[in-house]
């Protein structure tokens, strides 16, 4: 990849942006052909007719993607090449949800086969626990599961478990992430040791916050049970068997995943055990199938109907040419209330970078600030700024056609009406009332919220982020900016006396 600004099409897009900034979205929307600005994958539809683009602008964005060798990079991704150059690793979370024969890559096929074997073990364990065959040390069934992890070992599974709460028929699932002791303390107070399973989720099993919480959990558990009982109550999700054993856990209940699976893309792996325990192995498989459908769509759909490609290029247009610094994620579905938290990590940890693949500083904008809240709550929080603030912030509205509470259909009608009204008001405004409008948005529609449609939705955003990384000449699969803070925190904790202010805080 090269500097995207070096292409003539970049300058052409800047010129087009100058014209569009002088044109109201209502005028763009009056043009014929806006109804064709839709793309569908299964029961997921993207409507981008309220974006500040024209057919000619899209053509130029496709040209930019071609200039950055998008199709070649997409092939490298699915072929299992080591596109995570800084760590010399492949990026193969797609293999976790693939079917046999989806790729000719030997590495892809191996990762897929290994994941299938692990998933079979996971399903057997989950079924035994859910059916009361795997019981606690007292012979009582496991009623509570506590997933201890942070970042990719927490945000994805936590979001999915919450999103599919209408399908829960297993043990209660809790999540502990923060090193603040208040987090794990409050969770342990809800549980009984003899009925609790702990999942320690860490790729390397060296994550400081996770290990501290895991040690606290183990200490609490041993206040009620014997060391021999740990093997029935602690599960490890990791790639590091030696460290798992050093911590005192049995590898008999260790579920590994491949080094090619990045943390923020790992919910499809054994990191998703909490999901499987909550909703069952069949629903977990449906989640994977939905993601695979989006993978195949991303690989095979024509550019103008390719949802992740369109989402990625529309984001580049707004970020780099229309000067939008943020993206609001607005799911109008209570079950998706944790989606923006998850997408913050997925997007900003992937593309929140100012150094390109070659290690050189860049002079153009990359990842926008991702934020959001479930509708209609957000309307009473920050939508004021979306409508009349001095910054134009694009939005993704996510709606679900079928209600999860059909007995309360009037609630759902009001919910959908509010989502559509907000989008319309942002786009067209009302000049007499001081609403300028001209605020762009996309509408993502799911027919219903199922494991399958949720998998497709998540995968669409994963691939959108990849597209933008290609355009921006970034490695979207490392996170070097996270490491410096870890080193400094360790030094401050160990030697607070180096600074008078720190020393007083630690007294």
Would you kindly provide a written description of the structure presented here, covering whatever features stand out?
The protein has 507 residues and is of the alpha/beta class. The chain has 2 domains: 238 residues, Rossmann fold, CATH 3.40.50.10490; 191 residues, 3-Layer(aba) Sandwich (Rossmann fold), CATH 3.40.50. It is 46% helix and 10% strand. The protein contains 19 helices and 11 strands. A 6-stranded mixed beta sheet has the order 1-2-11-10-8-9, with helices on both faces. The chain has a 5-stranded parallel beta sheet with strand order 4-3-5-6-7, sandwiched between helices. Strand 1 and strand 2 form a beta hairpin. Helix 11 crosses helix 12. The chain is globular, with a radius of gyration of 24 Å. The protein starts with 7 loop residues before the first helix and ends with a helix.
Radius of gyration from the alpha-carbon trace, in angstroms: 24 Å
The main sheet orders its strands as 1-2-11-10-8-9
The CATH topology of the largest domain is: Rossmann fold
Q: Helicity range of the residues? A: 40-55%
Mean pLDDT over all positions: 96
Architecture per CATH nomenclature, i.e. the level-2 architecture of the largest domain: 3-Layer(aba) Sandwich
Q: Which oligomeric form is depicted?
A: single chain
Topology:
Layout: H1 8-20, H2 25-29, E1 38-41, E2 44-47, H3 55-67, H4 70-79, H5 106-130, E3 144-148, H6 155-163, E4 172-176, H7 181-188, E5 196-201, H8 208-222, H9 230-233, E6 234-237, H10 241-246, E7 254-255, H11 273-279, H12 281-300, H13 307-321, E8 326-331, H14 339-351, E9 369-372, H15 383-388, E10 395-400, H16 409-428, E11 441-446, H17 451-472, H18 481-494, H19 500-505
Parallel strand pairs: 3-4, 3-5, 5-6, 6-7, 8-9, 8-10, 10-11
Antiparallel strand pairs: 1-2, 2-11
Helix pairs in contact: 1-3, 6-11, 6-14, 11-12, 12-17, 13-17, 14-17
